[in-house]
Amino acid sequence: MDQIERHQVSSTAASPAFIERLADECIRASRPLVSLKKVFLGGAPVFPRVLERARKAFPNAAITTVYGSTEAEPMAELAFNSISEEDFAAMRNGRGLLVGAPVSSLQLRVIRDQWGKPIGRIKASEFAEMNVPAGHPGEIVISGEHVLPGYLHGEGESETKFDVDAVRWHRTGDLGYFDSRDRLWLLGRGNAKIEDRHGTLYSLSVECAAQQDPRIARAALVEVHGERVLVLQPRSGYEFETETCKRQLAWASLDRLVALARIPVDKRHNAKIDYELLKLLLQRGS
Question: How many helical (H) and strand (E) elements, i.e. helices and strands, does the chain have?
Fold first, then answer.
């Protein structure tokens, strides 16, 4: 904060974990950072609560979320002031996480979910049949000049790359859908989807809804021993009733809610859930 004020920093790009901590301190100290004119958040899911706190902390800034990956940055962008009350309500009620319109420099499609199965080389007519209509969830794939075409020694390409005639496409591993306005909504990682006796449940649908509660710092949905388990990390100094939260998320048909002092996340952004490690911790503790 001192450095931003001293040097009159006008723009910044950072992970939501960093921006949230900065915003929290600004609000706590009643010390808004008025020099900031542009704030970009990305590298991990950016939930509505973080955006709302950033708006309070940086009152003069245009706040933008950026959806991308190591292989392609950016893929979609969303200005905070374009999010309607209807959009916020949809995110609270399990519709997923809105990330905005795809950028014009690439092609982005949502295809029938077949994550985990190689696609290989196909014809344009076959690819057209794989595309799903607006409102239907599927696998997010991209193509463009700034999309990484391959990896060192080709490792991992069979899982994440495919060719439509002579055009290389990248499979992001994310699931989502287009709405009627051609905006992209994220539903979570393909390997985090739960399919059981209740139907299909997507991780980000539940996590985004759960993290509307100001008492919850982080939420993660996993399947453990055939159960739908939502893990919650309370914010420091806050307490919450898991049963109350479970009732609020009745549409998700959760089997258990578990409170953890810290949900494991990636070291780079301090925001992406490490689902495999979390499952291992829960299995050891069950």
Answer: 9, 16
